[in-house]
């Protein structure tokens, strides 16, 4: 650029002396350009050699810095242009997953941990990580929490676990993240789980009945919207009760639109650029406030269901406890922003995964037949709505379809951060106040780890049986033959005693199948998501014929790092009751 500018100026110069000076200046700037290029190349070569040498140093330290030709600018541009491609290259070395350090700004680095061994260390040390930054960012930028109250959440650096993080001095009564985590755990992994799942099942059956699908074909414009308005709404009713949606008929549609805009909100796009999205979020807040007022006026203790958890106004003990505690210390809009986070987190990725599972099943007529046959062999002529979803979840084929869908389509980050101390992670180290990321997608595509049956079932394709292990078939199961060889003999003996026939297995996958994270960072909603997802696709396949009206379904990429794949465009389809022969 400098050379071009000098040449243009030299053409306008007058006289021989000016021409000579212009050419001298031109050569001078050209020399400067060349020196800068050479310096960049030499720096890159030095960084690359240091990066390679670092790989063979087994002392515990930071992951090696990923080399770049133009510091800071190059990784930012490549990341923004195509994050999956850039990170795939940055987190692999000699064909294997590794960990690396990327400098995006001077003084600001992000550590990407992707090798399975380090990830297993992360899960083991997960009680030392502080998730406050991530939570507060989500509350403020995604769900619209007022800054005043977001700062209250930010001030609590004690963590969500029973024991406060080392170095924290937050008083017990101000441990808001612990209170929130305790409520979530009781609702989704403790005594509230079974009643919530039962309510979800009943609500879903009612939703499908309301569609009045008969023996003749009925046509719809968007398959994802069907799952959102049935399975998604059933989940909302199971947690919040029926009145949130009844009082606000547009709630589910607004939540649908909000989900589609969430990747843009996560980037901090301001209101004046996308005002409609902000108005939709505010409308959802108002929906919650309307529901709060109604429930406060009508709820009485004697209305709690016999299961001790549900009720017709607050929906669940989880919501009642949140009202008793949070409503006294923050305003309704703040509480609504937090509840919007629960509504989104409990529905949208589960909806997306259900959609993707159904796409894979319906695109394979043989798999449709197998699912129907499995259900008949296991449950006979029993009506699907009367089957305990947990029993469906114990079926090897259904569980494998579920797990393979998450392996192929969940592409989310687990964020790790230590606010008070360095955290050892085996070979590597997470320094105090540094941010680390683990992306599920690269672990799920690790060719060194996963079984492809010698390339017959590539990792970028759906294989319904990938997670089914047959003790009589050494080529079965999720682990590659090489990875299986390093499995300890004791673990193999335990597995063989527990399973004498075909079985679903995630044994040995702790650092590689990570759609929900791991350790104490694992998503507490995983059990509800699994049972809801399997119950939905088992019901749809066993009760209905469904045909998509498009041959190729393109997936959107903007959700990378944020959640689950979903169709880029609406998927039109037709549906009718299955005519059993």
In total, the number of strands is 14
CATH superfamily of the largest domain: Cytochrome P450
- Percent of residues in beta strands: 5-15%
Instruction: Identify the CATH class of the largest domain.
Output: Mainly Alpha
Q: Label the overall shape.
A: globular
| CATH architecture assignment of the largest domain | Orthogonal Bundle
> How is the CATH topology of the largest domain named?
Cytochrome p450
List the strand order in the largest sheet: 3-4-9-6-13
Compute the number of helices: 22
Structural class: alpha+beta
The end-to-end span amounts to 75 Å
Average of pLDDT: 88
**Largest sheet data:** 5 strands, mixed
Which residues sit in consecutive blocks of at least 5 with pLDDT less than 50? 1-14, 488-497
| Alpha-carbon Rg, integer | 27 Å
What would you note in describing this structure?
- Helices cover 52% and strands 9% of the residues.
- It has helices at 2-11, 16-55, 73-81, 83-90, 116-124, 132-142, 147-155, 176-188, 193-210, 223-240, 243-247, 251-266, 275-298, 317-326, 332-362, 365-379, 389-392, 396-409, 440-444, 481-485, 489-498, 526-543; strands spanning 92-93, 96-97, 100-105, 108-112, 218-220, 410-417, 423-425, 428-430, 435-439, 468-469, 503-504, 544-548, 562-564, 573-577.
- A hairpin with a 2-residue loop joins strand 1 and strand 2 (96-97).
- Helix 3 (73-81) crosses helix 4, helix 9 (193-210) packs across helix 10 (223-240) and helix 13 (275-298) crosses helix 15.
- The relative contact order is 0.12.
- Mean pLDDT is 88; it is low at 1-14 and 488-497.
